[in-house]
């Protein structure tokens, strides 16, 4: 009958400039797709290209983007049996947030237009073609019609699939490079399903997975949708470098669905047609009498706590194996942030052991190379953790025994190699140099010192911890008779970065930070998740303890310093400020106007004004710290990362004079009206 088509969507852990590895993963995915009966195989954006092996080799060797008439484009190249059918340039480029595609590529601005493209000689020698079609077209096979989207085009308000569907395209294919953000996956799924719900059709989405060599983690989620229903779902987080999703679908389901949508058919009768590239090939077999009926599935979304457990853990694994280091070093303070980082490290070890148990030979080979043992098999996460994960509690005279005990007990439960040390001698030596040179001895404010002295003495402790962290990261394995060095992990959260509540070049300065894009609120929920799912009972006391830097002297052996008192705001408030500042693009006055409504039950307008002013003063004073912030896993859309995501000045007029005057004027007006109403008995 010729109506059942088998298609494959791939999620590949590609790595920028790793030409050999990228080619190997592409070829593996092609073999898997063919072995499972697929007649069409789709790969993620910028994988190199989806090609037959010979043409693939040539494309990989050319190591160049597609240049058409001296203009560089981000393209999908569609092959069949060693011949190029179409080069389709990207129409809508991602140019906000983490993406700067316009820096590298030019969007194709000629809709429904095809030109002749002259192939480089290295490709001509393989395909035997001199020119191929280049532009915005669709593929007409013997039995159906296929259209192309590339990543951002799915998210655009005028997505190509709308007009393509009206013009008779039955299968939409999207090569995507979509990164992970907490609570984002459902949006991607909804976009795909809504594309086929309104217009009918089959939508095949492939996505990149893994660490991009930077702050992003691409979270797979390859999927196939039919007429608004998900019929195949790929994993969001896994250590498999190659994942192939295959589904067999009935083209008649699409045709029957569309025939019943009167509004769609009226619009289709007036649509401007796409150029069609005729392909002498059928996706369906002629003898497919027994056509399987598709069965919709309910997409299984991870909770935010599961996302934190899995996403950063996979990112850490990619970073560790590709950096060729021997493990991680974490300053473990016994607080929520460093404990959450330790739990992510443990989750990584858990995922490695699970992948090896499930037969992943690449993960096994990587683990053996990291621990320098060709016979090693990671079976117990705690045992593997002890080999590759070192934690260190760095005590001072301002530390409590409680935090020391919490750090030690957590290290025992996750299995890390744990070190206890005291930094007082180093602190006294550094302060002693200052006193010797200046003849002055700074004091904490608790002992009569000024705020400048107090802050400087806190910063000395914090910065010495950073120096010691790197010293121990380089030499700890040497002392244990093991080769290699350790990557230092930072553990400051996204809210502290936004507020600037960290010492520049302290132990928040590290090689990478798995929680730097995660809020304190989400980290607390993640800690509770680890108690319940990893049975890390030591985390209960960590959850109940007030967050503290432990940099000021104790009073009667007890803490005198807590984070939220130091900051002058709560972590919950910081999350709200961050979302309004970045996502809602609110300045001081706009934020004040929004918050007097949001907080009307708990704060007066004058109190809201005071909070907003304090936040913007602290944010602007400390913005310079973002320029040296440790590269962190991107997980929140209000991240203050200055390198790639949140590009803003780091020298502000911190008085915000005009903005604050506007706030004061509004507060006085509200107070005046409130006074008038109350005096007249109208309240």
Automatic annotation (TrEMBL):
Annotated PROSITE patterns: CN_HYDROLASE (PS50263)
SUPFAM superfamilies: Adenine nucleotide alpha hydrolases-like, Carbon-nitrogen hydrolase
Top EC class, one word: ligase
Keywords assigned by UniProt, alphabetized: ATP-binding, Ligase, NAD, Nucleotide-binding
Annotated ranges, domain CN hydrolase: 5-251
Key word Cytoplasm present: no
One of the protein's GO biological processes: NAD+ biosynthetic process
Catalysed reactions, semicolon-separated: deamido-NAD(+) + L-glutamine + ATP + H2O = L-glutamate + AMP + diphosphate + NAD(+) + H(+)
Highest taxon in the source lineage: Eukaryota
GO cellular component: cytoplasm
HAMAP family named in the record: NadE_glutamine_dep
Subunit structure: Homohexamer.
Family the entry assigns: In the C-terminal section; belongs to the NAD synthetase family.
Protein name: Glutamine-dependent NAD(+) synthetase
